[in-house]
From TrEMBL:
Protein name, as recorded: Cysteine desulfurase
Keywords: Lyase, Pyridoxal phosphate, Transferase
NCBIfam families from the UniProt entry: sufS
Gene Ontology BP term (one): cysteine metabolic process
EC number from the UniProt entry: 2.8.1.7
Reactions catalysed according to its record: (sulfur carrier)-H + L-cysteine = (sulfur carrier)-SH + L-alanine
Length: 408
């Protein structure tokens, strides 16, 4: 039985898109790990911005510019509070997780030396592998991989053995987007710090489910994307400890990031502006703040409890299907289920589900090394949010059964 303190029907009314039909069927949106839907409260903030105070920030003396600047800086403080970050200027607005990771990777190219080592977990998103490979090519540093087991959990003993005084950086996602595994990042961070290595945690997949306390974690860098947590696309946050942000060089040159420019020398602006060249996604940043307000009003404890119930129910129901295998069976998981049915290509299942109005992701989920590990081309991935229901899971399960009957 699913019992929740959340009024799911009232919550669903906040999301206009959930009313639409797809291929003549009510939309069942189970692709939340790729992007979440946007509540009316956040849409209203976007409309209000462009209707009433659209202006460039930090520049004009005029009223609109001041209103836009205030709202944008208030959003930064909402983000700071949400993640329990010590200083507002440790919050860098980015275009999303990928941008945040690249910013850090680029910065470390002036710090790393030949022979230094970077550890990266075996269950990373491509956005968390490619920038490090590029960094290694530039600096001569060596990339090493923390392996995982068949349940999709990192092998911590191997991690301890890989760590050494040569390790300068460790990169790991908080939650795997392909498998849903919640990684023991507190332990990962503690061990890395024991040897003087810095840690960047990719929080893109954790942030919709877990409210991370970044001071408590003592993490050096943490990245998120607003669009995975009820906000708009094209905006996100990079958290960096002040000492690190001071050490890293700017990523892009341009307006906003400079203190003084002459043709001989430019001095950089203080944090956070040093990393925020050019006109940012102002409306997106403000809407990101509104999305955090929305999710906090519902409450992360209630959200994760309800999503766990959905996960358990869906796991149980899917496993009643003959030949269905779930990839990612870690003890600690968020509401993501990656699966295949023996002898059937995931894409074919996804296409039939779409005809039935059910949106799932199929493919390698930007995590090809994970697929190689399990020796599969890809999976079908259903990922649940707090606005999904048990009835929608029933539609998914009967859809998968139907697809199986058609394709076998
Ligand atoms: C979605 C995701 C990313 C990429 O986020 P963008 O918003 O596309 O930059 C990175 N890592 C993980 C774990 C993700 O889920």
């Amino acid at each position: 039985m699913i019992q929740t303190v959340l009024d799911i029907q009232a919550i669903r009314k906040d999301f206009p898109i959930l009313n639409r039909k797809v291929n003549g069927k009510p939309l069942v949106y189970l692709d939340n790990a790729a992007t979440s839907q946007t509540p009316q409260q956040v849409i209203d903030v976007i409309v209000d911005y462009y209707s009433n105070y659209n202006a460039n920030i930090h520049r004009g003396v005029h009223t609109l510019s001041q209103q836009a600047t205030d709202a944008y800086e208030q959003a930064r403080i909402k983000i700071q509070k949400h993640f329990n970050i010590a200083k507002p200027y440790e919050v860098i607005f980015t275009s999303g997780t990928t941008h945040g990771i690249n910013l850090v990777a680029n910065g470390f190219s002036s710090i790393l030396k030949k022979g230094d080592e970077i550890l990266v977990s075996a269950m990373e998103h491509h956005s968390n592998i490619v920038p490090w490979q590029m960094l290694c090519e530039r600096t001569g540093a060596i990339l090493k991989v923390i392996p995982m087991n068949q349940d999709g959990e990192l092998v911590m003993e191997e991690y301890s053995q890989l760590l050494s005084s040569k390790t300068k950086l460790v990169f790991c996602n908080h939650v795997s987007n392909a498998l849903g595994t919640i990684n023991p990042i507190k332990k990962i961070i503690e061990k890395a710090h024991g040897l003087g290595a810095a840690v960047l945690v990719d929080g893109a997949q954790a942030s919709p489910h877990i409210k991370a306390d970044l001071q408590e974690l003592d993490v050096d860098f943490y990245t998120v994307s607003a669009h995975k947590m009820c906000g708009p696309t094209g905006v996100g946050m990079l958290y960096g400890k002040e000492e690190w942000l001071k050490k890293l060089p700017p990523y892009q040159g341009g307006g906003e990031m400079i203190a003084e420019v002459t043709f001989e020398k430019t001095t950089y602006a203080d944090l956070p502006h040093k990393f925020e060249a050019g006109t940012p996604n102002i409306c997106g940043g403000i809407a990101f703040g509104a999305a955090l307000d929305y999710m906090n009003l519902i409450g992360f404890d209630a959200i994760s409890q309800y999503e766990n119930e959905l996960l358990e129910y869906a796991t149980e129901q899917l496993l009643t299907i003959d030949g269905l295998k779930i990839y990612g069976t870690a003890a600690k998981k968020t509401s993501v289920i990656s699966f295949n049915i023996e002898g059937i290509h995931p894409y074919d299942i996804g296409s039939i589900l779409d005809k039935l109005g059910v949106a799932v992701r199929t493919g390698h989920h930007c995590a090809q090394p994970i697929m190689d590990f399990f020796k599969i081309p890809g999976t079908v991935r259903a990922s649940f949010s707090f606005y999904n229901t048990k009835e929608e899971i029933d539609v998914l399960v009967s859809g998968v059964k139907r697809a199986k009957a058609m394709l076998e």
